[in-house]
Amino acid sequence: MLQALQVILDVQEMDIKMIRLMKLKKDRIKELNNLQKIKDDLSQKTHEKEIEITELKRLSGVGEAEIDEIKEKLKKLESQQHNIKKVEEFNALSQEMAGAERERSAKVQKLSD
């Protein structure tokens, strides 16, 4: 009789271990699913940031092109300024150059931001 009870206790102990293992397996599967969700979320965010970086690079290139155009305009105005003989024309060109310089500074500031 004692032998039979020992067998039953051994079986119950094995059942308890199996139940614990099944619970542990279920918990690990939940953790894996959570990790997969986090990984997917991070992948999506990475993709969004890459798109954002590409757009910022494009905007930066456009801004730099605009700054180059303003620099060319300033050079052209400076060369015209040397050929001017009237004070009014000289002053008008100087004002136009100052405006172009302010525009260039604003674009540089915007690009740096």
Write up this protein.
95% of the residues lie in helices and 0% in strands. The chain is built from 2 helices and no strands. It is rod-shaped.
Task: Walk me through the topology.
Elements: H1 2-82, H2 87-112
Helicity level: over 70%
Mean model confidence by pLDDT: 87
- Count of DSSP-assigned helices: 2
Radius of gyration: 37 Å
Query: How large is the share of residues in beta strands?
Result: under 5%
The outline comes out as rod-shaped
Q: Kindly, what is the distance between the CA atoms of the first and last residues, rounded to a whole number of angstroms?
A: 86 Å
Structural classification: mainly alpha
Total number of β-strand segments? Answer: 0
Q: N-to-C SSE series? A: HH
Low-pLDDT residue spans:
none
- Main sheet, how many strands, which sense, barrel? none
Produce a short descriptive summary:
The chain is built from two helices and no strands.
How would you describe this structure in keywords?
single chain, 113 residues, mainly alpha, 95% helix
